[in-house]
Design brief:
The radius of gyration is 21 Å and the shape is globular. It has twelve helices and eight strands. It is mainly alpha-helical. Helix content is about 40%, strand content about 10%. It has helices at about 1-5, 25-35, 55-65, 70-80, 90-95, 100-105, 125-135, 145-155, 175-185, 195-200, 230-240, 255-265, and strands at about 35, 115, 120, 205, 210, 220-225, 230, 275. Strand 2 and strand 3 (about 120) form a beta hairpin. It has two domains: about 25-60 and about 165-275, Cytochrome Bc1 Complex, Chain D, domain 2; about 65-155, Cytochrome c-like domain (Cytochrome Bc1 Complex, Chain D, domain 2, Orthogonal Bundle), CATH 1.10.760.
């Protein structure tokens, strides 16, 4: 870099090194230099969906349910909805209507919500898992498991197009505040926070990829990278691994707090489940 400085503003051709070739501190500097973007007015990000930053082809894939691969999981969830299972031989439809849309349209817009039995916020996935255990007599489902993910997709899809409206519940306030702190906390060997990418530089580029705003309104989301549907917590853990941090455990209070904060951060944005992302 000294050579570039001594030669004024002349271009200096150099080969971009991989962060893996540097120590952690220098790697963070190199990666930060690759982050290109600007803040919105007043230093705040422009709150919009990552959908707006995708290619026309991916936007079309998400809009058209006959092309959207995430709909395979929605259809599976709708089939599970009417299937009588467990010791009680009951189906979700027995209590909640023939389809998720019949009585639960809008439900996904207000999760995570306070759960009195847990004495903490419950995500939509957790609430579905509780119902299956309590009312159908099924064994507890693993977080992100196939049946649970499909049912979550089906229930969330019933709210597609509706704006997020997180509950105005003071019991959620400390969780939301903790989630905001975690969102802004630098992590890993690359010493980067979620906010540095998804707030400060949303719409810019990291290498050749557009930096999304980091919305949660499309989860469960079909990602081309995964070739499958995945949960919000899976994506959060991927990001943490990307900055060389030890990811928070699935279902941990840290993950719970982040989900509460992201729901509040996304308020007013429309549910997109199942979203499609690169």
């Amino acid at each position: 870099m000294r050579r570039a400085q001594t030669q004024g503003r002349r271009a200096w051709a150099w080969r971009r090194p991989s962060p893996r070739t540097f120590g952690p501190a220098l790697a963070a500097v190199v990666l930060a230099g690759l982050l290109v973007g600007t803040r919105g007015a007043g230093g705040q990000p422009a709150w919009r969906s990552g959908y707006d930053l995708m290619s026309r082809e991916l936007q079309a894939m998400q809009r058209d349910e006959s092309l959207n691969p995430g709909m395979l999981w929605v259809l599976e969830g709708q089939a599970l909805w009417t299937r009588r299972e467990g010791a009680a031989a009951r189906a979700c439809a027995d209590c909640h209507g023939a389809t998720p849309a019949e009585r639960l349209r809008g439900t996904a817009t207000s999760y995570p919500a306070w759960d009195a039995l847990l004495d903490k916020p419950a995500t939509l996935s957790e609430r579905i898992a509780q119902c299956r255990t309590r009312h159908q007599g099924l064994a507890p489902s693993a977080a992100g498991g196939g049946a649970l993910l499909a049912l979550e997709a089906a229930v969330a899809h019933a709210s597609r197009g509706l704006p997020m409206r997180p509950p105005d519940d003071t019991r959620l306030t400390p969780w939301r505040e903790r989630g905001q702190v975690l969102w802004q906390q630098r992590l890993g060997q690359l010493d980067l926070s979620c906010a540095q990418c998804h707030d400060e530089r949303a719409g810019g580029r990291l290498g050749g990829a557009v930096i999304p705003p980091g919305n949660a309104v499309g989860y469960p989301t079909y990602r081309l990278e995964w070739q499958g549907l995945g949960s919000l917590q899976r994506r959060l853990r991927n990001c943490m691994t990307g900055v060389r941090a030890e990811p928070y455990a699935a279902g941990s209070d840290e993950m719970r707090a982040l989900e509460v904060y992201l729901a509040w951060r996304d308020r007013g944005l429309a549910v997109e489940v199942p979203a499609v992302r690169p």
